Amino acid sequence: FPAAHAAVASVRWAQRDEAAAAERYRVLAKAGGSTDDEIAVRSALVGARLFDRQDRNKATELYERVIELRPGQPEATDALMTRYRESGRVHDLIRLLRARIASSAVPATQLADHLTLAELYLDSLDDPTSARDVIDRALELAPELGAPETLLARAEIAVGETATAAKSLERAAEKCRAAGDVRGQTDALMHAAALWSDLGRPDRALTTYEQVLVARPEAVEALAGAARTKALGGDHAGAAELWQRLVDTSTDVPTKVAEYSVELGIARMAQGDLAAARNAFAWASHRGSAEIQVRAHRLLSEAASVGEDGETAADEINAAITLA
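Given the sequence above, the corresponding structure tokens read:
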């Protein structure tokens, strides 16, 4: 007798007996057998809200009943997504997302769910093939956005397609630039530059770092990446210029700036400018972390040896040993 259960539930609720009211709504929710049973849906929602404060398992059960009767119902879907994430029920979460995608007519919701679904395939199931299928659909929904391209790059990296992933990240960066998303643009470019470096393509890496610096002239990681890339390519003067720029303009803590100063000294020494190299190493030897101080003293010893100053070389290596 649904009407009787509903009446009793209302009375119990009015009496502030939420547990008893929730049980009555639970009975009503279970009683409905038709997908058109609005009473069962409403009862399940009310019961779930009440159980949520006292028995989350029963609340989950009722939210699942709502989805059984009304696939994609917003409140139940959101609640179950949270619960499934918390409990690690990845396959149930995927099933829920796919159901909402199928029932939703809102492009923004479909896109967000496709991206979440792709992340689940990548992060939880190690399934880049399924992720790519989902990402392809996301690209159809929003070809102008960078986020699907970024996820596509992750899927490509997972299957060893590193060069293709770098190109996907470059497309993502361009789309972010067009949308005015500077952070998204530079993050994608930095990732692409690292991939080009890993592939042994310093020319592409350097070009990509330079694109970052056009968008954010004081981007520390881009300056450092470009400097290292120049040094690897034998352009020690170019590397020194960038390291000097970092030392002069960085707002990092002194211990971090000392790391840049060591790299500056290495570049200056490669140029043959021992005086400038010693100045950079000496600065770092007083301001760096213990590890950097040791390295700076060892490099000072090396610079002294190159300059045929054996006494200073010995003193500096002794200082390094003492600190170590």
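The two ends are 82 Å apart (CA to CA). Try to locate this feature in the token string yourself.
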